[in-house]
């Protein structure tokens, strides 16, 4: 067989350059190709192609390839395959991306027509277009969702969705008397159940309190993380272990200056916080170099007011480091700001390289994901 004439490393390199949708068909050609494409080494090659984002804006759902030289080059911004049956999209008031993991995304469609109030949930692979319908999250007519989380439990090879719901959407999310219920869905059992938890619910940082501003769990090492902000206490980091199904907390940076922490994310495999100081009029990006160790918090960079065209008043959310196209290139980081733009930024010389604004539409969400052949039907 011709495949036997080439080293596996060369075959992996060739196959890794093919679109994921095409690889699905290649797997069906013969057992040899199926074994190559299913090899963990090849799976890791696909995941390391470069960062991609699911971008939700007023113009719809799109995919952005940040490994390209620019946001605007041909092929950087594409429309992913997510075609639902007509009866699934009746009476939809909004769409939300609740997180991504192993190349799969959790998508929620909000249904609220004064007769029913619930969320339709889907587990979806943006690279292949394959999706699985999950059980609906049913709320009472005045209820609402106040936080989401989505991740993978390696101990049972299953994906889980976590949320906090409130009985009355008329209450502000910072109301200490709000009646929160915590629920969890495991995709294999295909049913919702309640969690026992009496701690602080993660809070949005926006007075509008729209669905897009709700905190979504940041996944790292099988644990979801949220930035919490309660009455009568300083902000903190709430965590949820997907295996143990237990809530806990991580220590915050110990800094003498009065900082306001806006966003939490994962950057280069570390928990990351963005803070702003109205006194010093600056923006700081912190990373926890050793997970769970308070003394390991370090400032990655600090920007004075309007330095590099980034205003300290903006809520910045770091999304990822971009893949270097050449060995001599400096690190670049992609951020989402509350002016609804994606920014490609170079920390070394603190320069803004480019901004992405999708035809003037608001970028409501930008969720990193990796290319994968993973099936939502575990």
Provide structural commentary.
By secondary structure, this protein is mostly beta strands. 8% of the residues lie in helices and 42% in strands. The protein contains 4 helices and 24 strands. The strands form 6 sheets. Strands 3-2-1-24 form a 4-stranded antiparallel sheet, with no helix packed on it. It has a 4-stranded antiparallel sheet with strand order 4-5-6-7, with no helix packed on it. It has a 4-stranded antiparallel sheet with strand order 8-9-10-11, with no helix packed on it. The longest helix has 8 residues. The two termini are 32 Å apart. About 2% of the residues have low confidence.
Q: Can you describe this structure in just a few lines?
A:
By secondary structure, the protein is mainly beta. The chain has four helices and 24 strands. The chain has helices at residues 8-15, 20-26, 31-38, 40-47, and strands at 52-57, 60-65, 77-78, 92-101, 104-112, 117-124, 131-138, 144-153, 158-166, 180-186, 191-195, 218-220, 223-228, 236-241, 246-250, 260-267, 270-277, 282-288, 297-304, 317-321, 333-337, 341-346, 351-356, 363-369.
